Amino acid sequence: MRIVFMGTPEFAVPSLRLLLEQKYEVVAVVSQPDRPKGRKKTPTPPPVKEAALSLGLPVLQPERMRSPEAVAAIAELAPDLIVTAAYGQILPKGVLDLPRLGCINVHGSLLPKYRGGAPIQRSIINGEDKTGVTIMYMAEGLDTGDMISAVEVAIEDHDTSGTLFEKLSAAGAELLGNTLPSILAGTAVAVPQNNEEATYAPNLTRDDERIDWGKSARAIYNQVRGLSPMAGAFTYLGGEVFKVWACSPVANKDKVGAAPGTIIHADNLGITVQTGQGQLLLTEIQPAGKRAMAAAEWLKGARLEAGSRFDEGGAV
């Protein structure tokens, strides 16, 4: 059986490695093109490409999977099955119709909830206490295909997107290994999704990253966790971007008269900020032009007075 594997970020690497460990024939790997990274904008290969090359597998990186050239390249590989995991592009019908066993996707949510490109981040941002991985047959819509198998994964209160990515990545690879035999044998049971229960997790935007201090401490805490360690949540201090990488809600009551965003006090524990409901202790931050650091470390040399406010003078 000839398998073409499609994936891009680190999330997909365990699934690729599992296919080889279980002696499946992966004839090629398809990944997104190298993208510029860092201050020097150096073209950097995605993790799946790096893993594939280290394993001696050929790699294709079409800019647009919908292009006739990309479809033709996949057709030449004559796949019996296409396996995708966080590839990053919707496959056209011309590709979906190629394999005799279909195309399956390892998706990081319990479908039909959180269809889309950012299910892991948004499950944390929205305060969910569980998520999971679903393996489904791919269809032309956005994560609308029939479901084959699923596994549930708890979201712990300390989880960030980074730790949850690791959990779901491992769970997805294990689920893939357990699911493939039934697909190959033709005994897999495909269950249609209930579209009435569907929710969506679109890719994150800059607006998703900006902290609204009028929200509750818990909501902001979830936002910070959901954006770490990738983009990071941000606010403004003195008109400059001020990132928050880690924080925790404070148990004490609201301070009467303090507007959301007001700095209540700053000490060796961090920076305590008033929110729309409760207070938040910022423990890891990144001021403009500086590296990420413990808030207590930054406070040793910073002048930050109680009563100052985040977001004042910040760009819209």
Automatic annotation (TrEMBL):
Family annotation (CDD domains): FMT_core_Met-tRNA-FMT_N, Met_tRNA_FMT_C
Signal peptide: none
Domain Formyl transferase C-terminal: 204-302
Gene3D superfamilies: 3.40.50.12230
Full protein name: Methionyl-tRNA formyltransferase
Catalyzed chemical reaction(s): L-methionyl-tRNA(fMet) + (6R)-10-formyltetrahydrofolate = N-formyl-L-methionyl-tRNA(fMet) + (6S)-5,6,7,8-tetrahydrofolate + H(+)
Residues annotated for (6S)-5,6,7,8-tetrahydrofolate binding in this entry: S109, L110, L111, P112
Family recorded in the similarity comment: Belongs to the Fmt family.
Superkingdom field: Bacteria
Pfam families assigned: Formyl_trans_C, Formyl_trans_N
Keyword set, alphabetical order: Protein biosynthesis, Transferase
EC number(s) from the headed UniProt entry: 2.1.2.9
Domain Formyl transferase N-terminal, chain residue ranges per copy: 1-176
Role summary: Attaches a formyl group to the free amino group of methionyl-tRNA(fMet). The formyl group appears to play a dual role in the initiator identity of N-formylmethionyl-tRNA by promoting its recognition by IF2 and preventing the misappropriation of this tRNA by the elongation apparatus.
GO MF annotation, one: methionyl-tRNA formyltransferase activity
